[in-house]
């Protein structure tokens, strides 16, 4: 495909997308297919010769669309909202064309700096504490993750690194393995399953704290669990508070959980993936009271804010720790590939 054909096919694709969005309410929301429906309909191996653009579009309608769940349909009420908009689609086209990999400032200065500034914009819209903003001299700042699941894992790994270094500084004879086997993390029994997965991937114990009558984490139960674990020689180090659980949109009380985390020197991560966008509205901002006790905060603009998946905004008041972890993960990934 040369640039001339790209211009022509691009216009055709824009028309197809616009027609899809305009007629989405007439499509069946949930597909009437059985698991495995797709494999018999497509070749077992990749074709040796390319198909025409027209054939590909026809296959999309005949083979792919019958198996699509139309999340943007006005009749879709499952899970949670997912956002999209024409400006976001155009921005995706430009991002795909530039194709930079922004894993460091040198790799693409504009990519890195634009992300930093835009995350400050978004943080100010949410009225996050100044400590979470990068600004010109700030220690905090935001980065875009792929999902809230990734954000929770990154926060847990950062907390694990922080407590390991602190304990080794006080007792150099301690090995990372000896510390890790005693680490304990906590979350409400209403927390998303990704929190449990983060604990498994991070190699630490995760305990579910009972919720109260409003399906919020019971702070007294958290305190009791922490004291019990400390008495058993374990090391409480990480707590996930959820603002807007996926199951029932319940909210943990940050004003109760936050001071306890600070007192016990536990990293507090706020998972506001579902409801976080609402905090931009002044009438809902009080639901975020207590964020000043947190070490990291995350929500998903791709749920309510008309941004295409995947865009999960995460802030930390200790950006240096997050950057070190990001560098360590990148180097480790390169070593594995080598």
TrEMBL record:
<dbReference type="InterPro" id="IPR021115">
    <property type="entry name" value="Pyridoxal-P_BS"/>
</dbReference>
<dbReference type="InterPro" id="IPR015424">
    <property type="entry name" value="PyrdxlP-dep_Trfase"/>
</dbReference>
<dbReference type="GO" id="GO:0042427">
    <property type="term" value="P:serotonin biosynthetic process"/>
</dbReference>
<dbReference type="GO" id="GO:0006520">
    <property type="term" value="P:amino acid metabolic process"/>
</dbReference>
<protein>
    <recommendedName>
        <fullName>Aromatic-L-amino-acid decarboxylase</fullName>
        <ecNumber>4.1.1.28</ecNumber>
    </recommendedName>
</protein>
<comment type="similarity">
    <text>Belongs to the group II decarboxylase family.</text>
</comment>
<dbReference type="GO" id="GO:0019752">
    <property type="term" value="P:carboxylic acid metabolic process"/>
</dbReference>
<dbReference type="GO" id="GO:0004058">
    <property type="term" value="F:aromatic-L-amino-acid decarboxylase activity"/>
</dbReference>
<comment type="pathway">
    <text>Catecholamine biosynthesis; dopamine biosynthesis; dopamine from L-tyrosine: step 2/2.</text>
</comment>
<dbReference type="GO" id="GO:0005737">
    <property type="term" value="C:cytoplasm"/>
</dbReference>
<dbReference type="InterPro" id="IPR002129">
    <property type="entry name" value="PyrdxlP-dep_de-COase"/>
</dbReference>
<keyword id="KW-0456">Lyase</keyword>
<comment type="subunit">
    <text>Homodimer.</text>
</comment>
<feature type="modified residue" description="N6-(pyridoxal phosphate)lysine">
    <location>
        <position position="303"/>
    </location>
</feature>
<dbReference type="GO" id="GO:0042423">
    <property type="term" value="P:catecholamine biosynthetic process"/>
</dbReference>
<dbReference type="InterPro" id="IPR010977">
    <property type="entry name" value="Aromatic_deC"/>
</dbReference>
<dbReference type="GO" id="GO:0030170">
    <property type="term" value="F:pyridoxal phosphate binding"/>
</dbReference>
<dbReference type="Pfam" id="PF00282">
    <property type="entry name" value="Pyridoxal_deC"/>
</dbReference>
<keyword id="KW-0663">Pyridoxal phosphate</keyword>
<keyword id="KW-0210">Decarboxylase</keyword>
<keyword id="KW-0127">Catecholamine biosynthesis</keyword>
<dbReference type="InterPro" id="IPR015421">
    <property type="entry name" value="PyrdxlP-dep_Trfase_major"/>
</dbReference>
């Amino acid at each position: 495909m040369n640039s001339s054909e790209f211009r022509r096919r691009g216009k055709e694709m824009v028309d197809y997308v616009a027609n899809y969005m305009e007629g989405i309410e007439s499509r069946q929301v949930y597909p009437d297919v059985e698991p495995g429906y797709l494999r018999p309909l497509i070749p077992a191996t990749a074709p040796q010769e390319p198909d025409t653009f027209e054939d590909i579009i026809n296959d999309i309608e005949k083979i792919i669309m019958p198996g699509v769940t139309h999340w943007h349909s006005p009749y879709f009420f499952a899970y949670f909202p997912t956002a999209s908009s024409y400006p976001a689609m155009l921005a995706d086209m430009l991002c795909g064309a530039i194709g930079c990999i922004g894993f460091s400032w040198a790799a693409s200065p504009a990519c890195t700096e634009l992300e930093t500034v835009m995350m400050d914009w978004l943080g100010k819209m949410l009225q996050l504490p100044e400590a979470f903003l990068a600004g010109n001299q700030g220690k905090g700042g935001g980065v875009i993750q792929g999902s809230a699941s990734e954000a929770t894992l990154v926060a847990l790994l950062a907390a694990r690194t922080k407590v390991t270094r602190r304990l080794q500084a006080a007792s150099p004879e301690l090995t990372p393995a000896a510390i890790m086997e005693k680490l304990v993390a906590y979350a409400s029994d209403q927390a998303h399953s990704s929190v449990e997965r983060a604990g498994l991937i991070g190699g630490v114990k995760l305990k579910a704290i009972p919720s109260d009558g409003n399906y919020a984490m019971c702070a007294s139960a958290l305190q009791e669990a922490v004291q019990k674990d400390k008495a058993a020689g374990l090391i409480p180090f990480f707590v996930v508070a959820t603002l807007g659980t996926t199951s029932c949109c319940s909210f943990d009380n940050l004003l109760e959980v936050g001071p306890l985390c600070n007192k016990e020197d536990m990293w507090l991560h706020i998972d506001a993936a579902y409801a976080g966008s609402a905090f931009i509205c002044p009438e809902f901002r009080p639901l975020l009271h207590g964020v000043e006790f947190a070490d990291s905060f995350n929500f998903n603009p791709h749920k309510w804010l008309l941004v295409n998946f995947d865009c999960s905004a995460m802030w930390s008041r200790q950006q240096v720790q997050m950057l070190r972890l990001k560098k360590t993960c990148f180097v480790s990934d390169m070593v594995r590939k080598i």
